[in-house]
Structure formats: C-alpha cells, structure tokens
Write a structure and sequence with these properties.
about 425 residues, single chain, three-stranded antiparallel sheet, Cytochrome p450
C-alpha cells in the first residue's frame, strides 16, 4: 500500500491559529503520510501514535545501536553506540548540542535507563509534594497583586509562577529567575520545524550562558549542600555510579525548558479554552470534583506540544504501512488527542470524559519524568483560576510555532 504524499502547512498562519481542522482532514484520509518538504512520515491516529511512543521499534535516536548508519550531505556515516546523534542542521552550534547531549529526550538504551534511574531517585514525588504550600502561596500572591486590573496571563502570572516553582525545586536564587526565563525562551525555539539563523544564534548563546551558570551553581552545591534538586543530583548514586557534571547540567536544562514552557502554554491554552465555553467558572467547577480532570482535558484539547520526532530502529509495519529502518517519523500528538475513534466528540471540552489517556505525557521509556510536578503545579493554578471570573480583553495571537503551541500573550481582566 502506497503512503500518500501530503504537506503539513506549518508556515500558514491560519493553520497555526487552528491546526485541528487540517489535521482531522489528514487523519480521516490516512493514518500516515509522507511530507517531502519536512522530510518526515507523519502519523495522525491515536493508536499508531501511542504504539510509536511505547514500542522499542522506534526511538528518539539510534546512538545506542552499533553499526547504525545515517546519511548526511549525501555521505553515509556510521553511528556507534558512543556517538551522540547530532542533527546536520546548525551542527556547528557546539553549546546548544552540548546542552542536549545527555537530555533524557535524546537518549536510548542502557545510557537512558541508567541516567533516568538516577534522575528519578533525585526527583521523588515526595520532594515535589513538599512544594505544594509554596505553589499555593506563589499563585495566590500573584493573583492578589493582579486583582482588579487588566494583565497578561502569560507574562504576569504563568511565567513567574512556573519559573518560581522550577527555581525552588532546583535551588536557583529568585534573583536569577529572569535569566532562566530568557535562556529557556531562546533555546526552545530550536525545537520547531523551521529555525531562523537569528534564533539559532540566540539559542547557542543562551545555551552557553546556561551551561556556565549551572556549572557554577553545581560547584557551589558540592561545597555547600542544600535541600534542592541540584544538590540531590550531585549526590545520588547507584552501585557507586554518580551523574557526571555534563549529565546534571543537561538534566537541569531539560527540567527548565520542558517543565516551564509546557506549563506556561498549558495555562495559556487552557484559560483561553475555558473563556470560549460560554460558561461561568462556577458552572465549570460544578462539572467535576477533581481538578485533575480539568488539567487532563485541557491538555488533551489543545496540547502545548504538537509533535515529536522518532527514528525507525528496524523495519516495521505500523498503521498498515511498511516503514524502513532509519526512517524519520513524526507523531502528531494534537491530532491523536482528537481522534474520534478514541475520544467521543473530541472537538468539545468534556471534564467528565472517561477516556483520559491522551498522548501528551508521552509513553514507554520516554513517559514524562516530571508528570507529577506538572499535574500538581497546574492543578493549583486552575483551582485558583476557577475561583475568579476572568474576561478576555482581545483575541490573542499565536506565537507562530507549530511544535510548541502557545500564545504571544493573553490579555485578560479580573
């Protein structure tokens, strides 16, 4: 069976504004399509997306497989188990790639297993649960200062709230939080389909500064341990094996970029969705007793992350089609989360929805390691949001990125 050729129009403003109409069209016509412009096989349906997330036939890289080959600039290059998979795009940006080298998102095999195990020991649910009073206090303080005003929900609430929590967890002084925000904003722009030279240069410089800062903070924590995650990452061990400095630095950068950006965009996308329901927040609160139902449904409805890339690590069949070893594929999370084969009336928000297993937390060995933090953090926020009655001042504009889906701002009154 031939795989149809289609193009996901990520350069189109109307598509960025609402990608779900086009993705539904593609999803109903085919489970997979080839996009020559993006050089990817795209998978559109929930069953296949979840299978790719969980099966060992696909991975985020092939650096754990001896003898694997990659073609770059028409040259066949063998990839060994010790080599880090580097994209040929912006391949000279050493600091950016160094910040990615030991990211859990980029690892497979034994190295991923060992690193994730050590990070998980330093990132226990009880250490996250201890942050709950700080989350409540921070959220209340921010909203109390904004009450009776017109403000940007992203800049004035979501960003300082999120970075305060990840900063508290890691042990980053409050005076440095704005720098953390700036570095995160610049680095994550490298994760979309199209990256300008300007954004790449900014990401490279931000990565350089972030690495230097984290190394300095790590050195301080080794001399003067504190009750924070950087200290725990420096001390955790298994069979007398410890994390290296580079592994700790990459983990800190991942926790900030993945945790902060996703939280901010979930709050923005979620509040905007709530304000389009034509219901009072009191009515919405009465629809469920568990705030986690609200969090899960809003993430499903308008996911802050729309796609993830994978490699076929072996010849495999999926979605009724044969995919060759080495092929690059992309799983469309937003499309999977609105698949009517799985979610009843998927384009509607339903906080009583029984099926909550959306694709946005990932799956298999790459299931989001910070899920417990994100759910707690978002639950506190949406609990406080639903105690108010916000009004949308103007319809917001999207950032222009497809992969990391969010708004430029979200102007509201309280």
């Amino acid at each position: 069976m031939n795989i149809p050729e289609l193009h996901l129009p990520t350069e189109n403003k109307e598509f960025i504004k609402n990608p779900y109409v086009k993705m539904a069209e593609f999803r109903e016509s085919t489970p997979v399509f080839w996009d020559e412009i993006n050089d990817l096989f795209f998978f559109t349906r929930y069953k296949d997306v979840r299978s790719i997330q969980s099966t060992k036939s696909f991975g985020t890289t092939f650096n754990h497989i001896d003898g694997f080959e990659e073609t770059i600039n028409n040259q066949v290059i063998p990839i060994t188990s010790t080599a880090y998979k580097r994209s040929d795009q912006f391949g000279t940006y050493e600091n950016f790639w160094k910040s990615e080298e030991f990211s859990l998102l980029n690892l497979e095999g034994q190295l991923h297993k060992e690193l994730r195990g050590l990070v998980a020991k330093a990132f226990l649910p009880r250490s996250v649960q201890q942050l709950l009073p700080f989350m409540e206090e921070t959220s209340n303080k921010l909203f109390n200062n904004l009450k009776g005003t017109e403000f940007d929900m992203l800049k004035d609430y979501a960003q300082p709230y999120s970075v305060s929590i990840i900063g508290k967890l890691l042990g980053v002084p409050e005076s440095d939080h704005l720098e953390f925000l700036d570095w995160s904003h610049k680095i994550v722009k490298m994760y979309d389909f199209e990256v300008s030279d300007e954004n790449a240069n900014n990401a490279e410089e931000a990565a350089k500064q972030f690495i230097e800062y984290t190394q300095n903070l790590l050195d301080k924590r080794r001399k003067d341990p504190q009750d924070d995650m950087i200290t725990r990452l420096s001390q955790v061990s298994e069979d007398n094996n410890f994390l290296t400095d580079d592994q700790i630095i990459c983990t800190v950068i991942l926790l900030l970029n993945a945790g902060h950006e996703a939280t901010v965009n979930t709050l923005g996308n979620g509040l905007h969705a709530l304000l389009t329901l034509n219901k009072s927040f009191e009515e919405i609160k009465n629809e469920t007793e568990d705030i986690n139902d609200v969090v899960e449904e809003l993430i499903r409805y308008d996911s802050p992350l729309q796609f993830f890339q994978r490699y076929a690590l072996e010849d495999t069949e999926i979605g009724g089609h044969n995919i060759s070893k080495g092929s690059k594929v992309a799983i469309l999370l937003g499309s999977a989360n609105r698949d009517p084969r799985v979610f009843e009336q998927p384009d509607q928000i339903n906080f009583r929805r029984e099926m909550k297993d959306h694709s946005s937390w990932g799956g298999g060995i790459h299931f989001c390691i910070g899920t417990h933090l994100a759910k707690l953090e978002l639950g506190v926020s949406f609990n406080h949001i639903l105690q108010e009655q916000f009004s949308l001042i103007e319809e917001p504009s999207r950032t222009g990125a497809f992969g990391i889906r969010g708004f430029k701002n979200l102007l509201v009154s309280a």
